[in-house]
Write a structure and sequence with these properties.
The chain contains 4 helices and no strands. By secondary structure, it is mainly α.
């Protein structure tokens, strides 16, 4: 697991009861978009988690 530096998106994922598989999928998609920008990566993962959209598509 990578060290969180800016946004604790892992805590948000736990609070929203997101599965590890869904979190990994989001991380992979966001990493492809922001491969070298850690702050943008963490921000966009957090935004994806908080949006709740993943709950609709996981069902």
């Amino acid at each position: 697991m990578k060290k969180i530096e800016y946004f604790d998106y892992q805590k948000a994922a736990r609070e929203m009861k997101m599965s590890a598989a869904i979190l990994k999928k989001i991380e992979k998609e966001v990493r492809a978009e922001f491969p070298k920008d850690k702050i943008m990566f963490e921000l966009h993962v957090l935004r994806a988690i908080r949006s709740g959209y993943w709950q609709k598509t996981a069902a």
